[in-house]
Request: fold
Amino acid sequence: MSDIHHKLNRVRALLAERQHDAVLIKRICNFAWLTDGAASYVGIAADVGAAMLLVTPDARYVLTTNIEAARLAAEEPLADLGFILRAAPWHAAAAQTAALTAGLRLAADAPHPGAADLGDAFNRLRLQLTPAEGERFRAVGRACGRAMAAAAHSLRPGMTEHEIAGLLSEHTYAQGVTPIVVLIAADERIFRFRHPLPTGKRLEKYAMLVLCGRAHGLVASVTRLVHFGPLSEELRRKQAACAQVDAVFISRTRPGARVAEIFQAAVEAYATAGFDAEWQQHHQGGAAGYQAREYLATPDSAEVVHVGQAFAWNPSIAGVKSEDTILVGAAGNEVLTETPGWPLLRVAAGEEVWERPAILELR
Reply:
């Protein structure tokens, strides 16, 4: 079932509140949010798409060029959602937009000449996922988990990080998901860098695979670690500590909880495990959805958790990391990116026991 009417009402209420006549929705994440996951992008690293939406109090348009119009009409659900497609010659798109918005008190979610900035307001609108979005997110998370499992079990010593990145990307695309972030580290690079872009370094014993995969506009994040041969005592101690912090994050992320208080509980868990300074070496994650992180949690975050929101926490200690995407439900939290056949650590946090991913040991 489409959420279009509910979301359009929210957008139009925002326009009325801010006293605007219309809004241009240019950002890829917001385009997807309002169109049940339609893709407006060409380059996966872009923030603004090759098509945009124009919403007024009584109409809704897709504005694009002759290059994109055929695909959008044939492969995206825009007409079924009541959008009117307006295509201009690729060299005259700006003139079409100017003509359609002439005389209007215009706003936009990204910089646009003469338009008021509603970017922050749209960031807030995206946070609360609907049940239909939750179902789509489950599908994205499962697909990313399957891709990660397939790639991890295909690793062999001697592969370069670039080859591993290609392998993970291949399995992700095979699941119908676009890999928008792929980070790979082998051996000592896992201990040195928290954001390891893949290089030509060859895997000896230990690999970290990080994936942010996008489908239906939603982005699921997952990290897994693979080790050939038995783990050192250092790695066992660090993986247990990181899993404990992750379990605290997940267990505390409940409706009504303040994000700052969740963060503080995790900082205390780091200290209890003997790694009190590690949280300062990398962000700890935050809300997820149509961006890999809709916002990053900090010690002074003002946000409050609500049912239907998604989070991707990613605590790390030099050499290890724990990351999954979760969905906050009324009765409990659901891990969306479970990885089939993966070894798990059972970790107590509060009155609950959570299963967190262990390091996969291959022989």
